[in-house]
Amino acid sequence: MLIQFTVLTEHLDRYFIGFGGTVAASVISLIASFILGAVIAVFRITPIKPLQWFGTAYVEFIRNIPLMLIAIFVLVGLPLLTGALLVPFAAGLTALTVYTSAFIAEVIRAGIQAVPAGQMEAARSSGLTYIQAMRHVILPQAIKLVIPPLGNQFLNLVKNSSILTVLSAPDLMYQADLINSDTFDTFSTYIFAAAFYLLLTIPLSFGIRFLEQKYQTGKGVEA
């Protein structure tokens, strides 16, 4: 039999430890990258030129270098430059957040630009500041418009969390590597690791699809 279920039963505790690490890394990075990405997206379209330049430089620089290099820089380069030493798990979270936020920023920027310009004008004429109008009027509409591509970025984040393995942080792939080194059953070890990733990505995919259909049909959305 190709798949040896004893690999799973005998090392289930390790899989669960790794699964917990991956879930924690994904949730924390998802929240942080969404917030940072939204801020960078606003910078990209703000009339304040220095912020606009910073947002553009951030997105273009981060999107065009590999996640691996960002992770290595955070773990090794950042301490050399600043003296701030991060544990591998924190370094992985930082790299994931920085990398994913650049892609989320572009998705949200596209959503903001798809909102009719009259919405901002109406919000400003009602007495809201630019930031208040963006936060309470424009961004909520923009995010609804870009749920599918935003969801794809969240799915990519979950899969990209395996970068923690390279940094020796205790995620699912790291534990799978340890299990493989004990069992020498590479096929079974990583098949079960893939199954645990599917436990994360499939519900997330269905959740994203539900939100997409909900906002497309207008169900549950206030007029």
UniProtKB/TrEMBL annotation:
Presence of keyword NAD: no
Alphabetized Pfam families for the sequence: BPD_transp_1
GO BP: amino acid transport
Example GO molecular function: transmembrane transporter activity
Domain ABC transmembrane type-1: 19-208
Membrane topology: Multi-pass membrane protein
Keywords (A to Z) from UniProt: Amino-acid transport, Cell membrane, Membrane, Transmembrane, Transmembrane helix, Transport
Places the protein is found: Cell membrane
Coiled coil region boundaries: none
Any single Gene Ontology cellular-component annotation: ATP-binding cassette (ABC) transporter complex
Membrane spanning stretches: 15-43, 64-91, 190-211
Family designation: Belongs to the binding-protein-dependent transport system permease family.
Name of the protein in question: Polar amino acid ABC transporter inner membrane protein
Organism this protein belongs to: Paenibacillus dendritiformis C454
